[in-house]
């Protein structure tokens, strides 16, 4: 597949790390009730959903004023130990804990050119091509789809037919109706995509391409706006992906993902079926049909023949 080159785009305002930190802490605090963390709840009516700032500060062992400053987005001088204590008090997952750390103490990034190529090593491309019966995709920053093999095209569509900037999971899931039909649980897939974008935003708040993507999706998709506002983050390593393929019907595939050792922000994502299952037979049929099967949902064009 052709190397993914980021197209030139209009400059976009960077995401505000202070606002992101503030909203993330507020939404995590709002989802907890006093009884969830061993505190007594006095009275039926509370002015705020979830824990109060005072209660959270008590659980974390910090002053209310200190926590209030942090929730207002001032995390410049917060120590790792305090962040750990707040993460425990908020019952954060490992992914959420990492996201909190990125927001509170953002890394300094050198300015990058507006247009750049996400290089993919030749041996990695060869590896994907040799995985004949297993759909495999290399996913980069911002959920960009960088490289894929023939089986991935047979299952998800011929992305070579799309402009480079549209080869992106968020764009496909939220802006292309055929992917609503392809994913049996579209809502779960949409939430996974947004949660991963939130992780990227925490690590790279100054990424203009990410800001532009979030802005465009927020304008064009009400579902995206709603999910983005939840500030949920998670890193998906494995799951069952249920699909309704237009040619072979139902597919139950096991998703496994692996970070690239020399480029941790990229993931190799594979999909395999249980041996001897109907889904395994369906994948075998797709492999035998070759380029005739390279479409994802009704309306996706067939793959170009070579």
UniProtKB/TrEMBL annotation:
SMART domains: HTH_XRE. Pfam families: HTH_31, MLTR_LBD. PROSITE patterns: HTH_CROC1. It comes from the Bacteria. One of its GO terms (molecular function) is DNA binding. Residues 44-97 form the HTH cro/C1-type domain. This is XRE family transcriptional regulator. The lineage of its organism: Bacteria, Bacillati, Actinomycetota, Actinomycetes, Kitasatosporales.
């Amino acid at each position: 597949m052709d190397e993914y080159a980021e197209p030139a785009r209009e400059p976009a305002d960077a995401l505000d790390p202070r606002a992101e930190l503030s909203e993330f802490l507020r939404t995590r605090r709002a989802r907890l009730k006093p009884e969830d963390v061993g505190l007594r709840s006095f009275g039926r009516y509370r002015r705020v959903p979830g824990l109060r700032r005072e209660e959270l500060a008590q659980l974390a062992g910090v002053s209310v004023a200190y926590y209030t400053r942090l929730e207002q987005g001032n995390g410049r001088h917060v120590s790792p130990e305090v962040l750990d204590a707040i993460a425990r008090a908020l019952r954060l997952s490992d992914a959420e804990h990492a996201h909190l750390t990125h927001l509170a103490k953002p890394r300094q990034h050198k300015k990058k050119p507006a247009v750049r190529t996400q290089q993919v090593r030749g041996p990695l491309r060869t590896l994907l091509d040799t995985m004949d019966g297993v759909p495999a995709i290399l996913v980069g920053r911002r959920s960009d789809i960088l490289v894929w093999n023939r089986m991935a095209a047979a299952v998800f569509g011929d992305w070579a037919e799309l402009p480079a900037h549209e080869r992106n999971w968020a764009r496909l899931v939220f802006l292309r109706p055929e992917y609503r039909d392809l994913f049996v649980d579209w809502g779960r897939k949409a939430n996974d995509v947004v949660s991963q974008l939130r992780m990227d935003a925490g690590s790279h708040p100054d990424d203009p391409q990410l800001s532009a993507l979030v802005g465009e999706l927020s304008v064009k998709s009400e579902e995206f706006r709603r999910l983005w506002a939840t500030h949920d983050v998670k890193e998906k390593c494995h799951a069952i992906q249920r699909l309704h393929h237009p040619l072979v019907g139902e597919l139950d595939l096991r998703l496994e993902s692996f970070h690239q050792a020399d480029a941790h922000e990229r993931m190799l994502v594979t999909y395999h079926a249980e041996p001897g299952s109907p889904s395994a037979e369906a994948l075998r049929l797709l492999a035998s049909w070759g380029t005739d099967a390279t479409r994802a949902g009704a309306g996706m064009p067939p793959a170009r023949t070579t």
